[in-house]
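Technical note accompanying the year-one report. For the benefit of new consortium partners, we illustrate the data format agreed upon in the data management plan: each record pairs a sequence with a structure-token string. No post-processing was applied to the example shown here.
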Amino acid sequence: VRVRARIEGDRWQITVSDQGPGVPDKERDSIFEPRVRVGADAAEPTGEGLGLAFCKLAATAWGGSIRVEAAAGGGARFVIEGPVNGTAG
């Protein structure tokens, strides 16, 4: 897992990348909903499926957003970003 944080102008960005199985294109929007699980994790749950939903709530509360993309070399890259002077909603 690789974590990177940066500020560019009036925006901040945090990225978390891994080399796991990735997230299928058709499921990239739904994984931020509560209790949604994809891939191998869906067959043998080890959690409640709430982590990414909480990440989305935090990002939007800070005036930002979260998305997932394919990581270079395989895996997933989660990008959380928002305004430096964001306010809680």
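Partners are asked to follow this layout when depositing records. The two ends are 30 Å apart (CA to CA).
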